UniProtKB/TrEMBL annotation:
<dbReference type="InterPro" id="IPR000415">
    <property type="entry name" value="Nitroreductase-like"/>
</dbReference>
<protein>
    <submittedName>
        <fullName>Nitroreductase family protein</fullName>
    </submittedName>
</protein>
<dbReference type="Pfam" id="PF00881">
    <property type="entry name" value="Nitroreductase"/>
</dbReference>
<dbReference type="InterPro" id="IPR029479">
    <property type="entry name" value="Nitroreductase"/>
</dbReference>
<comment type="similarity">
    <text>Belongs to the nitroreductase family.</text>
</comment>
<keyword id="KW-0560">Oxidoreductase</keyword>
<dbReference type="GO" id="GO:0016491">
    <property type="term" value="F:oxidoreductase activity"/>
</dbReference>
Length: 209
């Protein structure tokens, strides 16, 4: 028998849909957005390097500019906020800070902390930029999905957008070479139904061996 929390998660997963019609008058407070993000960043990440970064855009004029960069998608302008998820290609540079924090919290002993820091510093800097971009994109996918489910559990709706001019985005928001824009997530209160979709049967996408 499923626990109440498991039923609740199942409901959230089933109810979460990509919403493109938002109430432009509805505003989500900064405190609520921070709460969503604080829960989202509990997502797993490669080597716990947490290579996600967020640019939260709530200013109406800025969203209007971003709409043009994002192929004139209406939800960019009408949602309460657009959360740009960026990938940190040099996330390994934070390894000492991250694992020192874990040591200070009592989650890891000093020997293992030093081992992980040394292994990371002996591996990641020598990986190709393409490999590190792939890692950042993978982490961004994990945190983005968690963010959307958390938002839905709080009564809000989202849609991810990969269709935007990334070069123009980088220029407009002065994004350094260290970070790559991956997706935009509109966050707000739905003002219309989501577009329902179907999924391929499980037997076509899963094989048990």
């Amino acid at each position: 028998m499923l626990k109440t929390s498991e039923k609740s998660l199942s409901t959230v997963i089933k109810e979460r849909k990509s919403v493109r019609i938002y109430d432009p008058e509805y505003k989500i407070s900064r405190e609520e957005i921070e709460e969503i993000l604080n829960e989202a960043i509990l997502a797993p990440s490669s080597s716990n390097l947490q290579s996600w970064r967020f640019l939260v855009i709530t200013d109406q004029e800025t969203k209007r500019e971003l709409r043009q960069i994002a192929n004139n998608q209406e939800q960019v302008e009408t949602s309460s906020a657009v959360i740009a998820v960026l990938g940190d290609v040099d996330a390994y540079k934070n390894v000492e800070k991250i694992y020192r924090s874990g040591f200070d919290a009592g989650y890891i002993d000093e020997e293992n902390m030093n081992r992980i820091i040394n292994n990371t510093n002996n591996t990641y800097p020598y990986a190709s930029v393409e490999a590190r971009k792939n890692i950042a994109s993978f982490d961004a996918g994990l945190v983005s999905m968690q963010l959307m489910l958390i938002a839905k559990s709080k009564g809000y709706d989202t849609v991810t957008m990969g269709g935007f001019d990334k070069e123009k985005f980088i220029q407009r928001f002065n994004i350094s070479d260290r970070y790559i824009p991956i997706v935009l997530i509109s966050l707000g209160k739905a003002a219309g139904p989501a577009f329902n979709t179907t999924r391929m049967p499980l037997e076509e996408v899963a094989k048990f061996i």
